[in-house]
Write a sequence for this structure.
């Protein structure tokens, strides 16, 4: 198959599901929110199996608690961040990385919440996918620290700031909320009381941020390793287009043989591997001309 036969050169979408993983996740969260409304109206309890409790949690609840939310605003906040940063992670690293970061952040956030409450009141419950969303946010934005973004505070007040400042503010608020509100509120310490009361699981957010930072380092380390391997395998780009011949330097025979179809395909595969690892923009002008020549030859 030549380069002209590839979906991204024909202007066609590659085969696969039309809906992104981000959209699927939002759809599932909205569906569970509607089920929660039905449960409340019917006075039933058919979603209790998904909520994570501090006292004897079930194995699946470490992840399923992320399907439930405490009201519309809780769902809206997580949904907006998920829509914004989840799409970036999916387009940059792929669907598998999206699912891994979301699930890993949700799990580590639950572990952080549960472990920081040891020895205190064991009657609390955790719900919401905030920790996974925080992990996605770090993976999506840590390589864009100098970018400017505009946020709508209270949905009408625009505020423009650097991504680095946004992450600093979110991390600082999360840590202060854990240290001065959540942590003392879950224990009966006489020497350390809560400075304010809220129902936010700041410890879960901290766990999500930590996992997001580790995931970002891992994903980029893997990408760099793949990129370096491709660079080592690929020959240096020619300064000018090479003719479609194979030359033998034996002075007695001095034979010139045409480039075989197998040799042309092998050279084309090297250029396609370079596109896969670093993008089409990484090709030089000579590479692009050679790509067209080899593609035309193999049609």
């Amino acid at each position: 198959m030549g380069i002209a036969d590839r979906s991204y050169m024909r202007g066609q979408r590659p085969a696969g599901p039309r809906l992104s993983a981000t959209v699927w996740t939002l759809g599932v969260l909205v569906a569970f929110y509607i089920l929660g409304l039905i449960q409340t109206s019917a006075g039933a309890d058919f979603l209790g199996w998904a909520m994570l409790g501090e006292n004897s949690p079930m194995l699946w609840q470490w992840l399923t608690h992320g399907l439930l939310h405490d009201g519309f605003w809780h769902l809206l906040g997580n949904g907006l961040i998920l829509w914004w940063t989840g799409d970036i992670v999916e387009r940059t690293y792929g669907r598998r990385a999206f699912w891994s970061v979301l699930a890993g952040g949700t799990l580590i956030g639950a572990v952080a919440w549960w472990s920081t409450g040891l020895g205190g009141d064991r009657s609390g419950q955790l719900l919401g996918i905030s920790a996974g969303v925080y992990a996605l946010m770090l993976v999506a934005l840590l390589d864009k620290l100098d970018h400017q973004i505009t946020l709508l505070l209270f949905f009408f007040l625009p505020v423009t700031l650097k991504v680095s400042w946004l992450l600093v503010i979110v991390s600082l608020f999360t840590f202060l909320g854990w240290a001065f509100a959540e942590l003392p509120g879950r224990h009966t310490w006489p020497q350390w009381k809560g400075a304010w009361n809220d129902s936010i699981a700041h410890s879960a957010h901290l766990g999500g941020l930590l996992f997001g930072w580790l995931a970002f380092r891992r994903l980029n380390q893997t990408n760099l390793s793949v990129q370096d391997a491709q660079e080592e395998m690929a020959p240096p780009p020619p300064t000018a287009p090479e003719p479609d011949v194979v030359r033998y330097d034996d002075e007695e025979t001095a034979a010139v043989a045409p480039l075989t179809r197998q040799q042309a395909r092998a050279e084309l595969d090297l250029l396609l591997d370079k596109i896969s690892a670093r993008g089409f923009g990484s090709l030089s002008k000579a590479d692009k001309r050679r790509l067209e020549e080899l593609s035309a030859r193999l049609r």
Q: What stands out?
A: The longest helix spans residues 202-233. The chain has two domains: 3-227, 236-298.
